[in-house]
Fold this protein.
Amino acid sequence: MEEIKEYEAFIKKQELCDFQQSVKWAKVKTLWQNEIIILKDKQQNIIASMSILIRKIPFFGHIMYVPRGPIGNLYEEKVLKEITNQVKQMAKKYKAFVLIIEPNIKKEDETFQNLALSLGYKINSKAIKFEQEIQARHNFRLNLENKTEEEVFQNFSPKTRYNIRLAIKKGVIVEEKNETGIDEFYELMQETGKRDSFRIRTKEYFETILQEFPKEAKIFIAYYKKEPISAIMIMQYGNKMWYLYGASGNKNRNLMSTYLLQWEMIKLAIKEHCKIYDFRGVSMEKGENGGLYRFKKGFGGDFIELIGEIYIPFRPIFYFFYKIAKKIFCNLRYILYQIRIYYEK
């Protein structure tokens, strides 16, 4: 227990801090097992760590996945080499066919790329669609360090500032709801999923996030005349805040409540002394013309392109056919979902 507390404290202090490397996040991923690698120096201080999610895939074996990790001094060869050696031993234990790492490293970071390649990793930095990787490579992140609300607001695009003021003028009210707002939040998520044709998580999944991160995860809902019209779930972990999920109803979309929600979350992040407000991923399938891209860009954040998947195929043939099977499964699931949505309309 003490080591876990030390582990969590270490993550929160790191520049590459990410809630997905917390043991709490591993508990959210109920279909996965979890293993932690911790490296310490001679003084028994943690210098690097990695949380690994492990899941058995029918017919193929175990997949090992590291979301936004490892964390620590990743530019010291002996550190990354030791992490790699330990994970290879773990792969033998689980008879894993692949290790996939999606670290918080930028694509242009050639130093890390060369180090990873020298240790036997392969790199895939080609994905542009959400479905091509487990997590999006392209993100918007807003730097809040030493900035006032006014400085941040003035850096928004004119359209974004206009939409925020419009929502306020029209009487949209934002309230923190958390567990008490889960039903309203989920109903709005369902409307969004049907409208934009994407599958959503179960209500139990969102409830689990709130349960495992009682202080860090929050739900806010925007109301118009006491009716919920949009909602957001955020995560504050360490000195960062993430926009996890957003939803909006089909009514009153002209009130621009989603813009006001983001502004209220950014103000909260400033109040909590967060250095970064992370808007998370955007699909680049339509380039800069994508609706999500334009929405997030309007808040003045930096466009970040991450390195993508770094992986070691322990059983290359198994991994090759797994990727084919996964693509077929995802396409079939999408088609079936579209058929269901069509008949529900």
Notes: The first strand starts at residue 33 and ends at 40.
